[in-house]
Design brief:
Order of helices and strands: EEHHEEHHHHHEEHEEHEHEEH
Strand content: 5-15%
Shape: elongated
Distance between the termini: 19 Å
Subcellular location: Cell membrane
Cofactor: Zn(2+)
Largest sheet: 4 strands, mixed
Number of helices: 11
Radius of gyration: 25 Å
Main location: membrane
Number of domains: 2
Structural class: alpha+beta
Keywords: CBS domain, Cell membrane, Hydrolase, Membrane, Metal-binding, Metalloprotease, Protease, Repeat, Transmembrane, Transmembrane helix, Zinc
GO molecular function: peptidase activity
Number of strands: 11
Helix content: 55-70%
């Protein structure tokens, strides 16, 4: 799921918002604004709207804290987090690579619902304290509502179905029992699709009997679950296809390289770099990779910078995946997607051994799919 717009960075993690998160924000704001006048009459309309808007913002921040907890636990266990995208049912933390063990997967997945439960308890405690000092205040009702929403978020996300946190817990359980993370992924995806269709069916039934809003909302949530589970099936199928395949079987060996001392102007003018590739590895005098330069980026450089070395316009090596030729290929698609270079520089004994692009992985995947169709069956 791609973010519709960005909120910046928190703790070095890019935070994005999918358009569906705006739906839950509006629902919370409008729901409270419509309910409060009947429950606590007597206040001016602007106060109801203000409390509703602030409560919606507080709930979105609760979603963010939920997802940040996943990200921080993942970091503590050696898994890099590229970004977080908030969406209708919470959020998704995009990890660069997978959890190394079922235990780590369990810790990463379980912390989110636990944090939401803690937030629910915190909001409930604040509501109780405020109620003793200002009984009947609008803020008391808003805090109580936020407590209920966070508890509901925790319970719903704990359901054993992808892409929910409970789906990751199910994946970890199946992984632990079978020794196969791919089987765990397949089980979570099937459960996610099943739960989604159940919710869609229940929503349609409610719609027929007259509960239009509840039925519509349930069907929308079910549709998102089915769609998200399907979206996870593609990468999971790719990981299954690439299982057991080393990076060296996909890489282009000995790619054309650019010396780090070469100027931008010389790079653009040199015939060996024309019309061949859109990006080239940059190496130092000892042929160690230091980055990757895109032809388009170099061409966009202003004339005042063209006498500078290509290192001034390259993507540095620490932002590029650098697998060993014998590393498994399974984790590389996610790493390429999370890198601004969208390429990997394969390094062996400190020297550049090859380069891998998404096209290389697609080529290997297509060949494996045609030669080993059994690998598709789990999904």
């Amino acid at each position: 799921m791609k973010a519709t717009f960005s909120l910046g960075h928190v703790a070095g993690i890019r935070i994005g918002v999918h358009w569906s998160a705006l739906v839950i924000t509006v629902v919370v704001a409008v729901g409270l604004t419509d309910r409060l006048p009947g429950a606590l009459p007597g206040s001016p309309a602007w106060e109801y709207w203000l409390i509703g808007a602030l409560s919606a913002v507080a709930f979105v921040l609760s979603l963010l804290v939920h997802e940040l907890s996943h990200a921080l636990v993942a970091r503590r266990n050696g898994v890099t987090v590229d970004d977080i995208t908030l969406w209708l049912l919470g959020g998704i933390a995009r990890l660069r690579g997978e959890a190394p063990t079922p235990a780590v997967e369990t810790r990463i997945a379980a912390v989110g619902p636990l944090v939401s439960l803690l937030l629910g308890g915190l909001f409930a405690a604040l509501a109780a304290v405020l109620d003793t000092r200002a009984p009947g205040a609008l803020a008391v009702d808003a805090l109580a509502s936020l407590a209920g929403l966070n508890v509901l978020l925790a319970v719903f996300n704990a359901l054993p179905a992808a892409p929910l946190d409970g789906g990751r817990l199910l994946r970890a359980l199946v992984w632990r029992r079978t020794g196969s993370p791919l089987r765990g992924t397949a089980a979570a995806i099937r459960a996610g699709r099943a739960l989604g269709w159940v919710l869609i069916g229940a929503g349609l039934l409610l719609f027929v009997v007259g509960a239009f809003f509840s039925g519509f909302w349930l069907a929308v949530v079910g549709w998102f679950l089915v769609a998200m589970a399907g979206a996870e099936a593609g990468p999971a199928r790719t990981r299954r296809l690439l299982s057991g395949v080393p990076v060296r079987q996909a890489m282009t060996p000995d790619p054309v390289t650019v010396p780090a001392s070469l100027t931008v102007a010389r790079f653009l003018a040199a015939p060996e770099f024309r019309h061949r590739h859109s990006a080239f590895p940059v190496v130092d005098e000892e042929l160690r990779p230091v980055g990757l330069v895109r032809t388009a980026t170099a061409a966009d450089a202003p004339s005042t910078r063209r006498d500078l070395p290509v290192t001034s316009v390259m993507i540095p090596i620490d932002e590029i995946p650098t697998p060993h030729p014998d590393d498994p290929l399974t984790g590389l698609p996610a790493a390429l997607d999370g890198s601004p270079a969208h390429r990997a520089l394969v390094v062996e004994d400190g020297r550049l051994a090859g380069m891998v692009t998404p096209s290389d992985i697609s080529r290997v995947s297509s060949w494996l799919a045609s030669s080993a169709p059994w690998r598709h069956r789990a999904f």
